[in-house]
Specification:
The protein has about 160 residues and is of the alpha+beta class. It contains 3 helices and 7 strands. The chain has helices at about 70-85, 130-150, 150-160; strands at about 15-20, 25-30, 35-45, 45-50, 60, 105-110, 115-120. Strand 1 and strand 2 (about 25-30) form a beta hairpin.
């Protein structure tokens, strides 16, 4: 098979077929399809759009925070809330107005808005396990995970003072 060189880069959708035993290459361009995104709304670098898939169209929000942002999650939450307001919804409450989420129901963590304190409630049932030290130690590990996960909420509560 002889090599063929193209002078330009070709960028388009096409089906390419090589005939066996010949030097013939058939390039059949495909018809241009509909755009993938519709109803595009932009806020800075972030976008909200609807996909045009036939089987499963979706509403997509791409959130982009600046690289030098000190609070990535906080910046993206502001952009997300702006998109929600644009759609006619109500933004999610500020972190100071709700409890922090934990994976263990025996541990409750919330920010007291009045006293401006972090409140932690650990519950250990006396009749279930006799090794209370281990139970409390396990809850301490879950508390650390909770504080790391909700770091942005804690930082915004601290700066709201």
């Amino acid at each position: 098979m002889n090599e063929k060189y193209f002078e330009k880069d070709l960028t388009y959708r096409a089906k390419v077929r090589v005939k066996a035993g010949t030097d013939e290459i058939i390039v059949r361009p495909e018809a241009k399809g509909q755009p993938i995104k519709k109803d595009v709304v932009e806020r800075g670098d972030s976008q909200m759009y609807t996909t045009t898939g036939k089987r499963n169209p979706k509403r997509v929000i791409q959130l982009m925070a600046p690289e030098n942002s000190g609070d990535l999650i906080g910046d993206m939450k502001k952009q997300f809330d702006a998109f929600i307001v644009e759609m006619g919804g109500t933004p999610s409450p500020d972190p100071i107005e709700r409890p922090l989420k934990t994976n263990d129901p025996r541990l409750e963590v919330w920010i007291s808005e009045k006293r401006h304190e972090l409140v932690v409630k650990k519950t250990v049932k006396l009749d279930v396990n006799t090794d209370y030290g281990t139970e409390i130690s396990n809850l301490e590990g879950e508390l650390r995970r909770c504080l790391l996960t909700n770091r942005t909420s804690l930082l915004s509560a601290r700066s709201a003072r």
